[in-house]
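Hi D.,

Good news: the full-assembly prediction came through. Inputs first.
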Amino acid sequence: MLGRLFKQQPSNSLHNHHHHHHHQSATPHSNSSVNPSPAISSFEDSYAREILYGTHNANQLKPYSFNNKLFRIIISQDGGSLRSKQVLYDSAYDTSSPSTGNFAASPSSFNATNASNCTIKSVFRSKNMVTSKIYHNSGDINDYMFGCGLPTNETNCATKVHVLPVLSNSICGPYNAVLITRLFSISDFENIECILDTAGNSYESSWCPTPTSSIGMPTIKKYPFAKSNGSLSNPNKNNVNSRFAIGIVIPIESANDLNDVIFNNWDEISHYMVLAQKLVYKKLIIHLNNDSSYDQDNSLTSCPYLINKRIQFPNYILQPDHEIGAQLYKLIKLVHYNSNIPKLINSNYLIKSALTNDNSQFNYMLLNWVLEILNWLEFKDGKSMVNNNYSYNSSFHYNYLSHSSSNTDLPGMNNSLTSMNSISNNNSSNNNCSNSTFLASLIALLLPLRKSLAVKPFHNVTNTKNREITRVVIMTGNPVVAKKLIFIINGLIPALDNGLICYEKNRIAVSASSSTSSRINDFQATSEEIMGSAIEEGVEDDEDDGSSKFSSSDDLPSTTNQNSNFSSPSPVHQTVSPKKISPLNGIQNSNSPRKASPSQSTALPISSHPIPIKPSNMSTSLCSSDNSLSGSTTSIKGWEIPCKSAASTTTTTPNKHMETGAKGIPIATATMATTSAIDTENHLRNSSLSKNSSVAYLSSSLNSSSSSSSFSNYSLSKIGGSFMEKWKNSFNNSYTTNSIHTNQFSNSMSHNHFSNGEGSEYVPPPTYGSLSKRNSIQSLRTPSPAIEYEDFSWQTTVPMSSSHSNSINAINSQQTTIVGTPTKLSRTQSMYDLYNMNNGGNKVMNEESYSDGTANISSASSRRSISIKRAKTSVYSPLVDDNLVKNITEHNKGVVKSKCAEIMKLKISQRNLQDGILEVFPILSQKSKLDHYIDIDEADSFVNDQSTITSRPGEEDASRKSQKSEDGYNHYNLSSSFSPVFKHKAQLPNVAFTDEFRPEFNIQSCPVNPKLETQVINSMKNDMRFYQSNYNYESITSRTVFISLRAREIKVLEMSYNNEHMSPSNSTATTPSNSSIGTSPSTSYFPDTITSTGHRNSISSNNGNNYKTIIKKVFTPGKSSFSNQDLVRRVDDTFDDITQLFAQQQNKNKQQTTRSNDNSYEGNDFNKRLAGLVLTLVN
Amino acid sequence: MTNYIVCLAHFCELHGPSTIMCTQVTTQSRKQDHILPPTSKLQTCSSCKLILPDGLYNVVTTEEPSPSKSLKTGQDEEARVFISTHYPSSQKRYASLTKLVMKSLSVETSSVLSKPMFYGDMVNGYCINKIFKIRDINARGSERKYSLMVVADSESDLLSNWDVISVYFTEIIELVQERVELTFEDTMAKREAEASNNSNTLLDNERYLRRSMIKPKSLADLTNDDQIFVKLHLWAIELLKDILK
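Then the structure:
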């Protein structure tokens, strides 16, 4: 909303705008977030949240609500009086009184002090009582900013942060706020900031204060004033030194959010403060210079503002300045965007740790990363993977078949598949040689830029002479597709160099939380484990769903049992296992012992035919929950429509939209022609569908409809919804969806979206109580932005635009088609199968496993999800499961409290050395302790350990942690016996989707906007200016990889500046021959903007310095002009290898169906090879 | 790497803002740089003094390098050494710290004493501090003003630890104040007992003639714990360990 207001209103109306705000603020309904933030991303489903943010818990990503009118900027001067400082500008001062009309007058009208005094008086008179209650007293703020007590005589810039006292008033309620102060001087003493590096001693020089953002010398100078009676000896020096302060007040929800809102974004806030300081400095100097008069007689410049070697501007001299007034909105947007759009988790780290650690819980991340790459290659890049697709489908059941005790081989099918696979391999390799794909080009382009992508654009990089800023901007009409691409890109970006996000130990915290010892490599064991758990927890439980669902997730012994199944799968498992899988692949070996299953009533197998079975309740729900959870379903709905079936699938007429849930089937039919086996499979499965399964499918389709409403979030903005509302809608959305489920399926529906853990704590704020009424499913399924859906040669995604009831009808009436869905799932499923993803032991109850009670059992035991504790802008380190620690603040407080109390109780005995040194010894860390993560519930008790005497607090004698060791000294060790303190680790400013381009972000996707490229170029220009004027880098490069998804085009915009070879003539706008700008698709969409702007910008620049600008088109459809073709080819080859690896593995699995259980070795081999391939990409 | 100094300072009625103790982390090989020589013993009042058992003036704790870390890096990491001294031996750090302590106790104000505040510049470094007061009947206004500070040379790194630092500050200050209150009550109880025994004891003059009774008192006296500075050292170590993670 704000953004649009900005666009509509000329800059000089900002004050009126402000008035408007103020009026609003006076109304009693304006308690929180009066002006919804412009920020926040579109809706994300649970799967998207997991892969992007490392958690499926939407509450962790719930945006803060800021009350925009509580933001404030105040500029003051220290005029020399100890008692009072003068306010030069105060955004909170802008009252609705008529006197503000005076401010609108041009600054020149402020020449005379009288005039301004007059204005000020009227302002005082009109001062609104409300204002004084809402805002902190400016006198107090001045005290905080300048300090009180001893006056200091400094000229250097200083930064301060205060937590302001909570103001209680009836209008806004009590609120927390932070004051960030920037102090600077206008002074004749210049360059005092040079640090005197005294000694060559490394110890001495190791202390080197480094600001977050350094500020260079101002380019604008004040006149060398002297008062007319000034000393003639040095007419140019008046030894003026005056202090000024800029204070910004940022309201925060709670004092615990300080790190998340403020300090994790400190680079950006500092950058803002530096810019604000420069602006204010410039304005003040202009006032100083303009208002000074030149005394010709004495050839002196005198200035009315110079009094007693201090500059004393009249009060509120800056108040009418629009440029400064605009700063407030910049600030609001900065805070909103940077703290409310959740930052992506560093999946690169997680993937790497999954690659190096077999037990890693983050296999899920690795797996999905590979999957999304394969999906992208197949569905977006249109790589010839048709046959691979088959093999994915088939591999799925092959894997499972391999676990059934006796198999008659299916000769025909096997043969066909084998041949298909080999063909596909040939095909793909042929294709690759000739034509590199979009994704390969992109990754090859980004690989060398990874390091600079791992640095925040505004981070102060010391100890380098060359600063490179790299951004990736994806222009897209479809955030869901863009998010997939961003997920892939994000996997390449290494963690911030200022500290890994976790250590060895940290992973233990997580793996302990998952409490399984899964061997990812052992895919044979995996499926058996699933089956095992299913048997133990699910099979006999068809009736009693609710009770068992939790036992499956929480019961550690049961997981142990599962693990024991690894080595020697019992016949029982083998007997029952196929039943669970059957609905997914719908194909069953005739000799499988499934017959024995009681739930099996129809569709008895026919020998030597792959036959479907009628799914039991339980297996159905497994299927459905997998549908909703694995995310592949939603991804299918979102974007995954294979080219080959396009003709039959993508009928985008509105009345067909309701079939989205059933889109799968045309694919199946398309494949039928080639594979008779699948043909039969589908037919038979269709016939054997039970009502239960249709219900399950309904739920999954509902689920997908809510996920497809992510599209409509963007389109909502077009029909006037504000962004904050949209974001909140996404909560309501899922909420209402679930509640509908609850109504629909009254069976065992005890939990919904928010039933687990913290979810239940989420209460929708009253502010959108009214919204939630509107936000029925129907309203969320707003007009599908079908027009926006691209796509070049890619297949469109068909949003679910039918109403709720429609979709039910559609699903009911189209039961047969729905059955196709599982085949689409199959690739994910085969991956899950190959990797041991389906381990039980996850404590997290998946929020979407609500379709049927039994689903909980199977989903909880068969799927692990990632739920890392995090905040919007950071993750907590060490990484910890979301459900393990409820409240980080409380936890930390508890840990530190007991730690400190323990020390207080210590009776320390020490050893005295020479030189007056008192030595206090720590106890050696116990390795076993390191391996053990203490659950929060046990945090008060200490781990018992042979070497450390521990006890519960209160048992006074034993709680001494001191103990005698061999050398007879008392040792202590606290760190290892307490659970860790969790710290914020700020994540890189990589976001999935933002509704407008933000220069603070490294990676982002933005909606299609003709001005986007101009914005990008402008921000690059600002980078150049900023770094050039404030830092001493030898060369500065600002680079943006600009991806237009609609045009499937990759452009690199690069602006560079080199201090050394600077000459006035080297301003060039280079346009390489291969970057035919005229054919730029974006240009063709928006003919008059892009190219000309890019060109012009390259020539114009601020300080007379020109930046070399290069716009290079790296990839356009059918043409890759990337210089490093070799790298592209290598990336492409890696992709192929991965694809082939999967194909081969599936063949192997197939062949092993007749053999014994020796595929654990094969699985390891597969894993090693896959790890190797992925490592070449991520490392 | 960012350098941190955890510091306890106070406003001395005789000397103004002054450092009592500062804890730094270094490596075994650099240890000597931080150790104060015997000649450095300042002639100072007892409230400014770092009082350690046996008249020592350096507290050192050597941390064994964690095996998991060295496994990870593949090389033996040097053991971390935590050293507490009265003041930093480095001239530069001394200058920075003195300036920051001065600001903390006599320039900066914050009305919310329960929250720490941050200030700093690129000349002297950066500091998160929290002021706390300790009851002392012998002090002016019956209280002594102390400041607990974490000083660093990197603004970003320091601020990213705001949460952790503020939790530690709260707990440490609470424990010290609690102990002081206990001690205070003890002495008052004793005194009252004495007074009741001694029937002709007049009113406690100290309460009224405070000026004459102003005398510097160490935190060790106030807490009645001669190891209080060793404990502060250990607290600082825990704090530093968590910051440096």
